[in-house]
Description:
The complex is a heterodimer of chains A (about 110) and B (about 120). With about 110 residues, chain A is mostly beta strands.
Amino acid sequence: KNQVEQSPQSLIILEGKNCTLQCNYTVSPFSNLRWYKQDTGRGPVSLTIMTFSENTKSNGRYTATLDADTKQSSLHITASQLSDSASYICVVSKAGNNRKLIWGLGTSLAVNP
Amino acid sequence: NAGVTQTPKFRVLKTGQSMTLLCAQDMNHEYMYWYRQDPGMGLRLIHYSVGEGTTAKGEVPDGYNVSRLKKQNFLLGLESAAPSQTSVYFCASTQGAGSSYNSPLHFGNGTRLTVT
């Protein structure tokens, strides 16, 4: 079964600290992996998209890594800000004839002052 | 630049009533999608469209219909609402084939629907 699992389910950190969110997947065949940020009451916003050949990609203070061999990805947030409080969702794109996006349940991050 | 706009933002329906959710995008995107988001579940694709005049079923299409008469608009209809359709509905658009290509999905801010 194609799955995307994220950990931790929720996380609380202090403003200014760094954190790393994890995503493990079993989707095959693999096309790309995406990270989205979803603020409460808003739609998801794309942070990064990585293909099989890319093992790191940055978007400001957000850095995503991908290990396609172990089927793991991480999202590292540097020098967190209060506005980083949100749900971070890992999404894996399945390639082939049955193309589809497989959505994780997200990690809920709270950044406290 | 508005991006993707969904109307209404909130709606309460009684079982059996019908309604239409409207999605409009101003980015000239070819592909448009309707998702639902429920607690404890990842986003699930209801229907999608690969261009004006086309529609296709997603993972959970039962109880919903869609139309794409104009490129910029994608309508989601509930003919006879059921409590199981209580959810947050998101519309998204992308220029390329969002699934297999490197095009990010652009989402609206959702419609929160309650069916009593």
